[in-house]
Amino acid sequence: MSTWTLDPAHSQIEFAVKHMMVTTVRGQFRKFTVDVDFDEEHPERSSVAAHIDASSIDTGMEARDAHLRSADFFDAEKFSELTFRSTGVTTSGDGYKIDGDLTIRGETRHVVLDAEIGGVVPNLQGGRRAGFSATTKISRKAWGLTWNQILETGGLAVGDDIKISIELAVLQAEAAAEKATTVVA
After folding, report:
1. Which domains does the chain have, with CATH numbers?
2. What are 36-68's pLDDT values in tens digits?
3. Are 90 and 96 within 8 A, CB to CB?
4. In 3D, which of 158, 153, 166 has the Cα closest to residue 141?
5. Strand 128-139 relative to strand 158-172: parallel, antiparallel, unpaired?
6. Distance CA 88, CA 99 (A)
7. Residue 12 to residue 69: CA distance in whole angstroms
8. CA angle 20, 54, 29 (to 5 degrees)
9. Most exposed residue of 108, 141, 145, 183, measured as fewest CB within 10 angstroms of its CB?
10. For position 12, what pLDDT does the model report?
11. Predicted confidence (pLDDT) per residue in 13-31, tens digit
């Protein structure tokens, strides 16, 4: 097992939710850290922990982002981060299931991520790089995100189901540390 460091330039945490029952709004979190202990020989022994800056939410519309940071949704002033910590990894077909605890607004709930290993390859700068994809769907109401508006035509302005998609690129920590201490003359 080895520790890998996040490559933030090639990683994303995105979400999608229905708006007014007819369109899908997508967004992402711009600031996050992820710690990955990855066992290439036995991926089920691996673990992951993520810390996501709640105020870094970005849907491409500042007014909506400000509302999402407010007490109606994430309450980012009081709850500055969302966290995920894996509790187990199991093989599932060609991929994996990652069980874990997701904390939003101080509420922790169990979630399961459907995950795939994109591969492990030599990094262009030396060392090794690995890629992972994961998805899940959660009910926002389970974490107390209950704000909504009833539409004139019936239905609600914001859907309950949130689809989460994660793309992670990581560098083997030993290679990253070696690169950081290399002196160029």
Report:
1. 2-177 (2.40.128.110)
2. 999 999 999 999 999 999 999 999 999 999 999
3. yes
4. 158
5. antiparallel
6. 5
7. 19
8. 70
9. 183
10. 97
11. 999 998 877 789 999 999 9
Q: What residues contact residue 79 under an 8 Å CB cut-off, 6+ apart? A: 54, 104, 105, 106
pLDDT at 111: 98
5, 34, 37, 149, 173 from 177: Cα distances, Å: 10, 17, 15, 50, 6
DSSP state of 65: H
CB under 8 Å to 15, separation ≥6 — which residues?
Answer: 26, 27, 28, 162, 163, 164, 165
- Separation of alpha carbons 48 and 28, rounded Å: 19
The Cα 96–Cα 17 span in angstroms is 24
Residue 156 has pLDDT above 80, yes or no: no
Which pairs from 67-72 meet CB under 8 Å and 24+ separation?
68/27, 72/147
Q: What is the CA radius of gyration of the chain?
A: 18
| Residue in the structure block whose two tokens are 């996501």 | 52
> What phi, psi does 8 have (nearest 5°)?
-65, -25
Picking from 55, 38, 56, the residue whose alpha carbon sits closest to that of residue 47 is 38
Q: What are phi and psi for residue 55, nearest 5 degrees? A: -75, -10
